[in-house]
Amino acid sequence: MAVTREQIFAVADELDTAGQKPTLAAVRKALGGGSFTTISEAMNEWRARKASQAAPIREPAPPAVADRLAEAGTEIWSLALELANARLASEREALEQARQEAEQARREAAELADQLTGELDEARARIEALERERREAEQAAAGLRGQLAEAQEQAHTAEARAAELRTELDRAHQESAQARQALAEAREEAATLRGRLEASSEQMAALIARLAPSDGQGRGRK
């Protein structure tokens, strides 16, 4: 909720009545918050009003002076009062100049404070955003580590299976080589047997040929 000028004036009056200096920090603390720029501008107006309410010095001449100087003394006293008022006006002008310079400095300080407050809020928001991004990155990294572990386990399983397949393939190659060797030996043995069979067939044919005439002669004798 924004702080109004009337609230700032009321707090400044209370502090001034209590004998406390109504500084920007004291007023802001009593209000419970508020923009430094708003409080600074309102306090400048409050100080200007208070300064304008100061009445010029007007005091009657002391009785002793009045008795001795009578009318001349009264004129001299009036002249002294005029000089005092002129001096007061000059000092008030110098005070106003100093007040304006102080007002400018306070305004710049208040603007700087508001700017720094905004930058601090932005920095906090940025830190919170970075913290969220960090947590999300850590969660993503944890997920990737889990996937990597699973992939590594699958790779180990695949490597073990590949080793088994290589062993089975080597065994199959060995068995195939043994089968080829056995086939070659069987073919060689079959060729040998065919040779023997052919030789036996030739011997049998020759034997039959030798036996055939003897059988004819025997039939003739009968």
TrEMBL record:
Signal peptide: none annotated. Residues 81-203 form a coiled coil. It comes from the Bacteria. InterPro entries: KfrA_DNA-bd_N. Residues 4-119 form the KfrA N-terminal DNA-binding domain. One of its GO terms (molecular function) is DNA binding. The keyword Ligase does not apply. The keyword DNA-binding applies. Keywords: Coiled coil, DNA-binding. It holds the Pfam family KfrA_N. This is Plasmid replication DNA-binding protein KfrA. It comes from Tepidamorphus gemmatus.
